[in-house]
Amino acid sequence: SFPKHVRLVEVGPRDGLQNESQPITTATKLELIERLAAAGHRYIEAASFVSPKWVPQMADHREVVQALMQGGQARPGVTYSALTPNLKGLEAALECGIQEVAVFGAASESFSQKNINCSIAESLERFTPVVERALAEGVRVRGYVSCVLGCPYEGDIDPGQVASVSRALYAMGCYEVSLGDTIGTGTPLKAKRMLETVARDIPIDKLAAHFHDTYGQALANLYAVLEEGISVIDSSVAGLGGCPYAKGAAGNVASEDVVYLLNGLGIDSGVDLDKLAATGDWITQTIGRPNRSKAGVALTSR
Ligand code: HMG
Ligand code: MG
């Protein structure tokens, strides 16, 4: 049965923007984050403490997080998080006053190598001290698993492998594991079967769905996993985004479309659809990108 409430994780400022090759100012990122919070988002992934050589668009991670956490731009009641793939990233994030971080692994060996330059086993070894150190500082850690429904290099991925990496992240101390359909190749029954396998070891309320919409299946896949009891959904305003290490990957499922779906199902998310749609309209015009939210386009068309 469906959950009564769904917690939305807005990843637009990170997953949505990380792939943009044209410069986006720190001020624009901060305004986007503020507008998302004003629309009712209570959890916003704001930045990524990764190497600027790997992901140039996230090079201003310090400025973004400092403005929020130390410059008074954070709103009370909103959690702002950042990706931290290693201790170097975590230390920098802690210096900026971050409240919550995320480590990101993969269920595919090839994707792990391309994305974070190490094997799955090495990544888990690398994350262990990151999680320990964060928790010691009172900073919560979310875990991501990429390629849960397919890999750009390896094709099909065994749900058992997804479960194994998820288990390791959960055992390490991640309070939640977000399951990434990085390239959006999943379909509803496949998503259900994958989730059933992972949920044998991890309570379903500790799992999140992070679906990209490359093949237009993300909303259908979300409906399928909502039926299974998923109550945390990652999404990106206007469907912005794409992964730099997954060629052809489109953006995340659009936040506006998810909120429209949830509203129709009578599931509360706390997000105001009109304000969110206006935010999607604003950011896509500002950075000169098409708005990939169908609900957003319908609500803001002039
Ligand atoms: P590496 O080259 O193996 O690391 O990269 P290294 O330790 O050998 O360091 C190499 C250089 O990077 C050094 O600089 C370090 O200082 C620097 P140099 O001496 O050459 O000038 N460096 C850093 N700089 C800033 N922040 C850091 C950091 N660490 C090292 N934290 C590393 C390993 C993980 C750093 C690299 O591979 C990397 O940055 N990868 C980022 C990949 C990424 O951001 N991908 C996108 C996010 S994941 C995603 O989108 C999927 C997700 O949405 C879920 C889904 O959809 O599936 C989460
Ligand atoms: Mg992603």
TrEMBL record:
GO MF terms held by the record: hydroxymethylglutaryl-CoA lyase activity; metal ion binding
- Asked if Coiled coil is a keyword of the record, the answer is no
One Pfam family hit: HMGL-like
Q: In which pathway does it act?
A: Metabolic intermediate metabolism; (S)-3-hydroxy-3-methylglutaryl-CoA degradation; acetoacetate from (S)-3-hydroxy-3-methylglutaryl-CoA: step 1/1
Q: Which CDD domains match?
A: DRE_TIM_HMGL
EC number in record: 4.1.3.4
The protein's annotated catalytic reaction(s) are: (3S)-3-hydroxy-3-methylglutaryl-CoA = acetoacetate + acetyl-CoA
All copies of the Pyruvate carboxyltransferase domain together span 6-277
Instruction: State the top-level EC class.
Output: lyase
UniProt record, GO biological process: ketone body biosynthetic process; L-leucine catabolic process
Residues passing through the membrane, by range: none
Taking the record's annotation, the residue ranges forming a coiled coil are none
Q: Which InterPro entries match?
A: Aldolase_TIM (IPR013785), HMG_CoA_lyase_AS (IPR000138), HMGL (IPR043594), PYR_CT (IPR000891)
Keywords assigned? Lyase, Metal-binding
Q: Is Repeat set as a keyword in this record?
A: no
User: In terms of domain of life, where is this protein from?
Assistant: Bacteria
Per the similarity annotation, which family is this? Belongs to the HMG-CoA lyase family.
Its name, as the record gives it, is hydroxymethylglutaryl-CoA lyase
**Source species, please?**
Halomonas huangheensis
